[in-house]
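WARN no homologs supplied; continuing
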Amino acid sequence: MRIDPLKVIGEILGEPADQMRNPVNADYRCPFINAQCVKKSQAISGPFPVCTIWHGGRRSGRDPQLMCVCPKRLYQIDIVNDVINHCWPPGDAPANPRVAYEVNMAEFGKVDMVIADLDDRTEDVKNFVSVELQAVDISGSYVPAYEGVLYGRDEVSVTYGINWKNVRKRFISQLIDKGIYHYHWGTRIVAVIQTPLYNELHRTIQFDELASDAGGNTIIFMLYDYQPDSAFPGAYRLELDRVVGTSHNSLMMASLYHPVPSKEVFHKRIISNLVR
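OK structure emitted
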């Protein structure tokens, strides 16, 4: 379909798309990591500095909403203080919190961020919480809309959507795999995601929702959504919406045993796909 590219692209390099039409002059510098944008697309050379896109609108029957397509955009959030205030395991709050990024471990994979409480004297780790950041995946491509913003086009032809299923399959599997280690370690893993993404995940995988301070919670969802930024007209900020806890067992079992599709419908699909 043909559409105004500014109704597709929300932010470029953290700024409203209509205010950032020449990212080259900005050296593709991402304000959330204070470095050049690391997002790429096979369709273009160089960085692909789109932070958010608009989703919904007339066809969906919902008001358009900004959706984060780059996890680095989530670093606008004061993650450390929010985790300490809302997600730290029961007991004493950290006295000496320190941050490590991209922590890797064999048979475990990588976590985006770890907040550790270090002993002042020995610098040993007394306690820690891991943090994973997740944006949405896209089916189709919004590259034509990005190029339309750069070149000042009134309309572009673009087809794209949110691949909820791929996020669910990949991200929930990661939380389950990494969550079992954190369960045995007696600590937590925090998922930082947008509220609409969480709502879609929970609609499909109906795991238990528990208070974030409830005992036994290994996995905590820290949910944010976009609100207008009063300091910068036309801009948006991620604000904390709510914090939801769950157990590793509940997430795993709900993921394995979600409602089964109709056998009769599958029979019809078999018939329609038979080799003639």
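The two ends are 35 Å apart (CA to CA).
OK
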